[in-house]
Amino acid sequence: MIIVLLGPPGAGKGTQAARIMESRNLVQLSTGDMLRAAVAAGTDVGNKAKEFMAAGKLVTDEIVIGIIADRIEEDDCRDGFLLDGFPRTIAQAEALGKLLNDKGLKVDAVIEMKVEDESLVDRIAGRYTCADCKRGYHDTYLKPQKAGVCDGCGSTDFTRRADDNRETVTARLATYHTQTAPLLPFYEAQGVLRTIDGMVGIDDVTIQINNVLSAL
Ligand code: ADP
Ligand code: ADP
Ligand code: ZN
């Protein structure tokens, strides 16, 4: 099964991807996570991507398509995968279609997580992550059970993304509306678009996604 999670920054893609990954045994492919790892490691790709990410702009199609093309060749992608944050432009969607077509595969569903801009700013401003196991949290909406201690691994070390500040968020939302939103009619025309309400609580979003997946 090949699933795309589509939605603006802060919609909850990563949060839901982690849950689906566990319940459906699909690997999560997050281009954002891969790019951040490349930046941290100081690779060629990382150095090229860094400025774009800091400014809330998209990294070039060439870079991200290259990353995904390599990644889906790996063994753990054999039984399907969940794309989180890719594709983000029509060019990326077309490239993905070609890569899959060459393997006799296709995108089974594109799940649009619909969330209003005001809520997105709030979600992004409060987002933080365990520095060790990468589990995601929120200052208000998703706190660890014991304050300051990660539920997943017990770590007391947390990080916030450099681009999760209010200025960059505005640029990222504008980028979403101009460059990524055109994917909605693109996938609707292919009959694979499923829209869910991302404004509700985390568990209720998971229920909607599971309903979509179960119907496939
Ligand atoms: P994305 O991957 O789409 O950028 P995340 O999954 O990182 O978004 O979620 C952004 C922030 O909002 C995180 O701090 C997360 O805990 C929180 N969050 C995710 N889904 C919801 C929800 N349905 N309601 C409230 N907060 C949420
Ligand atoms: P969010 O879902 O919160 O916007 P991501 O972690 O998916 O964040 O992406 C962070 C940044 O990485 C983006 O703002 C962009 O600069 C870059 N990026 C991630 N995925 C892509 C992509 N598919 N195409 C171009 N740039 C990307
Ligand atoms: Zn942890």
Describe this structure in words.
- The protein is of the alpha/beta class.
- It has helices at residues 13-24, 31-41, 44-54, 61-71, 90-102, 117-125, 166-180, 183-189, 202-214, and strands spanning 2-6, 27-30, 81-84, 109-114, 127-130, 136-138, 158-159, 193-197.
- The strands form two sheets. The protein has a five-stranded parallel sheet, with helices on both faces. The chain has a three-stranded antiparallel sheet with strand order 6-5-7.
- The model has no long low-confidence stretch (mean pLDDT 96).
- The chain binds adenosine-5'-diphosphate (2 copies) and zinc ion.
- The site of zinc ion has 8 residues, from loops.
In short:
The protein is α/β, with parallel strands linked by helices and 216 residues long.
What's the number of helices? 9
Percentage of helical residues? 40-55%
Q: Which blocks of ≥5 consecutive residues have pLDDT under 50?
A: none
* Whole-angstrom Rg: 17 Å
- Report the end-to-end length measured between terminal Cα atoms: 9 Å
β content, as a range?
15-25%
Structural class by helix and strand composition: alpha/beta
| Mean pLDDT over all positions | 96
Largest sheet geometry: 5 strands, parallel
Strand and helix order: EHEHHHEHEHEEEHHEH
User: If strands are numbered along the chain, what order do they take across the biggest sheet?
Assistant: 2-3-1-4-8
Bound molecules: adenosine-5'-diphosphate, zinc ion
Count of extended strands: 8
What spatial form do the alpha-carbon principal axes imply?
Answer: globular
